[in-house]
Amino acid sequence: MDYSDASNDRLLDRQAERESGARSYPRYLPMAIREARGVEVTDADGNTYYDCLAGAGTLHLGHNHPVVVEAIEDAMAADRPMHTLDITTPIKEAFVDTLFDSLPDEFAESAKIQFCSPAGTDAVEAALKLTKTATGNRSVLSFRGGYHGMTHGSLGLMGDTDPKESIPGTMGNVHHLPYPYPYRCPFGVGEDGHEVASEYVERLLEDPERGFTDPAAMVLEPTQGEGGSVAPPAEWLREMRRITREHDVPLVVDEIQSGLGRTGELYDFERADITPDVVTLSKAVGGGLPLAVTLYDEELDEWESGAHTGTFRGNQLAMAAGRATIEYIVDNDLPSHAEQMGARLRDHLDAAADRFAAVGDVRGRGLMLGAEMVDASADADALGARPPAPDLAETVQSACFERGLLVERGGREVATVRFLPPLIVSKEQVEDIGRIFREAVEAAVSEATGGSP
């Protein structure tokens, strides 16, 4: 059947008939995308939207950026192979050169790379296998609110328990630590919570009755993404590095969503001036095409041949697109642009929070931002936080959609409206995005309160 002229409704009906119940975004963003360029997408009915979803933060250069298109077309025109397992090619070696050049020198000098099948969760699985093999240990430290993918092992690291409820035998021996989150501080002390959190981790690892064996790794996001755009202070990251080093625990930093410029640094861990043992990358590293890699200190390289494989680990078009993307990000200093545009967008989110008590907290770094929606009619706790309002966040998301803006939701009870626009977003586009969000909040609050802000 030819669907080239089909409407949104027709395409959505066909999707609902045939796709599994696990589909998610079409339930909240009822559209079929026909065209896309830069920061904008156009649906099958001709409606245009600003894309602040961007493939869950994958499309750092937006849709169909010329340098990405050219890299793919050049590879195809030259009859390059499409995928090669782990047999090397000129495209692959050039990609690795570019990726290693983008890394901090101290990490790159002793780095090894493992290509994984194609999603970020595959890179996390590789990191778990690697550190368990190298240390001989089995327990893992993760964090509340963390998200590292949806495969069996990665799911075990997740802070949110709901996705685990229906999965029997989810990876055990994972111990979830408190993550600095001032608005809902796990220790009830607010901005100073990161200091207590650090002391807690240190005391836990020193306690002979802590209840678990020596860890194979600590896995953390330097800024939590799906957890609600929660950005801990650099001091806390430095403390986690110090503590793990002193206790011989490999530190795995998940940069799958934050990496390659999104937070205002090329790699988010650089703001703390630390050197991890392992870094996981996906999303932007393939230029929008499926690719995942695990980078790690060569001292951990205890794997035997074939210890970790994957059919699509040799995706050559993704390597060509990834190399072009990384070069463009570095050559055009997109991390600085992301920081500037993020500050501009955050001004709009803060303005909404100043006007509407239902916007409880605005947070994040660079172009990885979130606004947590709360129940303004409920009493605040001692730190000023009100209960999350997931229904209101969904209404805000819908109101944004109706006005031409695609946004994500995440965080506690999925009550945080999240913004992950391409790093090439312009000042004018940011102004429009901010205006639409403020109008959407006003409409949602009015609907929820019967006209009262």
Automatic annotation (TrEMBL):
Top-level division of the source organism's lineage: Archaea
Enzyme class: transferase
Record keywords, A-Z: Aminotransferase, Pyridoxal phosphate, Transferase
Cofactor: pyridoxal 5'-phosphate
GO molecular function: diaminobutyrate-2-oxoglutarate transaminase activity
Gene3D superfamilies: Aspartate Aminotransferase, domain 1, Type I PLP-dependent aspartate aminotransferase-like (Major domain)
PANTHER family: DIAMINOBUTYRATE--2-OXOGLUTARATE AMINOTRANSFERASE (PTHR43552:SF1)
Protein known as: Diaminobutyrate--2-oxoglutarate transaminase
Organism field: Halorussus aquaticus
